[in-house]
Design goal:
about 15% strand, CYFA0S11e01574g1_1, ATP10, 11 helices, Glutaredoxin, about 50% helix, about 300 residues
Length: about 300
């Protein structure tokens, strides 16, 4: 039987052991959340999702209370969630701002040429309000079937920097008059805005500004300006399309099947701006060739029974 002093020593030893284990685990978590220095890379390989998006993707947390409780009690899911939180903490607002300033918004270098359709990967589906309605809807319905120049931003800095790509010798395509000219030059294309709201306060501010935003846009673009909550876009999705800085402005050129054919970020440089619109013209040409091929296939299919 242990004396009182012996029990005290045992308790102290137990306490010391647990304290050391806690400090060790806490140190490991701090190391895991320490952000790595951002490396600017050229997009030599396609970015995006392997699987084609679906209309139900990224609607936010749709779980029931019962399912949330089950997930809370699930160790494996908790480990995965902890890893996600560590990544989110590592890429805090201050880290994003530091990276944005250090790179001057050029978080990656755009590819030297647009990617071929057979190699390109998919842009995700998001859910958000447009300027005509307060009811969230999928972006997929708007993106499918047309060539899309998608502008994505969270901050005013990202909004402003990405605008430069649309100020061409022809017109400012983001203005009401300029978009009319855009449609004349690129009748199979559209410009999409995705304003990602970082928190509830910003979401409320943007929603209160919807009428002013509608006046600033061409009437055909009011249902193509989406307000999407950041919390509905999983971290792994953001990473796969390089949308991992809250201060950057990003542009993606999508083909009618929602494949990312080219991407750029940061301020508009002449070389990149020229490549953007060369990509849009190239996709127009692809689409025209596909339509022509489809017509020829139909004609050949009609002639086959007559030969027999």
């Amino acid at each position: 039987m242990l004396s009182s002093s012996g029990r005290l020593l045992t308790l102290r030893g137990f306490s010391t052991t647990h304290r050391a284990a806690f400090i060790g685990k806490f140190t490991q978590q701090l190391a895991a959340t320490k952000p790595k220095r951002h490396v600017v890379e050229t997009l030599n390989v396609p970015i995006g999702l392997e699987k084609a998006p679906e209309v139900t993707d990224n609607q936010g947390d749709m779980r029931s209370v019962t399912q949330k409780f089950k997930d809370f009690m699930d160790r494996d899911k908790n480990r995965l969630r902890q890893k996600e939180l560590e990544k989110e903490i590592a890429k805090s607002g201050m880290y994003d701002l530091y990276t944005y300033r250090n790179t001057k918004g050029k978080l990656f270098n755009s590819p030297p040429a647009y990617w071929k359709s057979e190699k390109a990967l998919y842009f995700p589906n998001f859910h958000g309000e447009d300027l005509t309605s307060s009811k969230p809807r999928p972006t997929l319905d708007t993106l499918l079937g047309k060539i899309s120049v998608v502008r994505v931003f969270t901050s005013q800095m990202g909004d402003k920097s990405s605008q430069g790509f649309f100020k061409t010798s022809e017109a400012n395509y983001l203005s009401p008059e300029g978009y009319t000219r855009f449609l004349e030059l690129y009748p199979k294309a559209q410009i999409i805005d995705i304003n990602i709201t970082e928190n509830a306060t910003k979401a409320l501010f943007v929603k209160m500004s919807k009428s002013n935003l509608a006046k600033m846009n061409h009437k055909d673009r009011t249902d193509k300006y989406f307000i999407v909550p950041r919390k509905t876009i999983p971290l792994d999705i953001r990473e796969q399309i390089k949308l991992d800085n809250t201060y950057g402005g990003f542009i993606y050129v999508l083909d009618p099947s929602m494949k990312i054919r080219w991407a750029v970020c940061g301020d508009a440089e002449d070389k990149e701006k020229n490549m953007l619109w060369r990509t849009v013209r190239g996709l127009h040409k692809e689409l025209a060739q596909a339509v022509e091929k489809s017509k020829l296939d139909e004609e050949n299919a009609e002639e086959e029974p007559q030969k027999n």
